Amino acid sequence: MSYVIENDKLKLSFRALGGEMTSIRSKKDGLEYLWKGDEAYWKYHSPVLFPIVGKVLNNEYRVDGNTYVLPQHGLARLHEYEVIKETPASISFRLRYNEELLKVYPFRFSLTISYTLQEDTIKVQYSVHNEDYKTIYFSVGAHPAFMCPLFEGESFNDYYLEFNEKEDLNLMKLNEQGFFIREKEEFMKNSNTIPLSLDLFKSDALVFSELKSSTIAIKTKKHDRSITMNFSQFPFLGIWTKNTGAPFLCLEPWHGHADYEDFNGDISKKPGMVSLTTGQTFSCSYDVTIS
């Protein structure tokens, strides 16, 4: 089932599967800003990553000595959510544990995703509540894919990324299987811009930590349209596209990340995981401004 929220500037569409936003459309001229989910490239629009971000070694992890299996980016994008609140300019989806989910993620949880539209800004909030009698462990992250280029006749290389602070960035390096290695590579110094090219993504995503910036924007010198994300509540930022010429770019704020290649699989010791005690709620949010 699909849902719509809107104001005088933007119209947003959603589906219950994955609690996923599927469209960001300008009311002024009908321009679509969110990737359309063409399966020839990538079938998602803006999936939610939970309870893992990225991959775990052999698709396996351990809890209390028992082994469980999860696919890349977890289970949240694969299941139907219920709508628990809806207004003309906001909507909230909830996914709650059940017997099926407990077989692959042995924690009693609820995950609420709330989308709120304010002028030309979309606020996306994740709230994870621990309904279990024990501490739960999880990662949570966003994976929105934005149209890049925005217009016909443009190319991906016409665009660049702009941080709001000058950065000295080191790249968290991935091996060929998509797991991190224990070294970083210098990526840029004293700069706030990254010119885009498909060659940047020949080894998969760009992943950064310890950023000074709170925002990143997709821009071009060809016009003044832009997409700006505030990711200040997240410790990791991934940037990704398929290097096959796919016309989109993903900006991905994360709590947590893929396994290191030498990780032992115990979820309670996995770097970047959030731990949450009984009855507590963890919340984080990011904003996307369309201009």
Automatic annotation (TrEMBL):
Coiled-coil segments: none
A Pfam family reported for this protein in Swiss-Prot or TrEMBL: Aldose_epim
One Gene Ontology molecular-function label: isomerase activity
GO biological-process terms attached to the record: carbohydrate metabolic process
Protein name, entry field: Galactose mutarotase
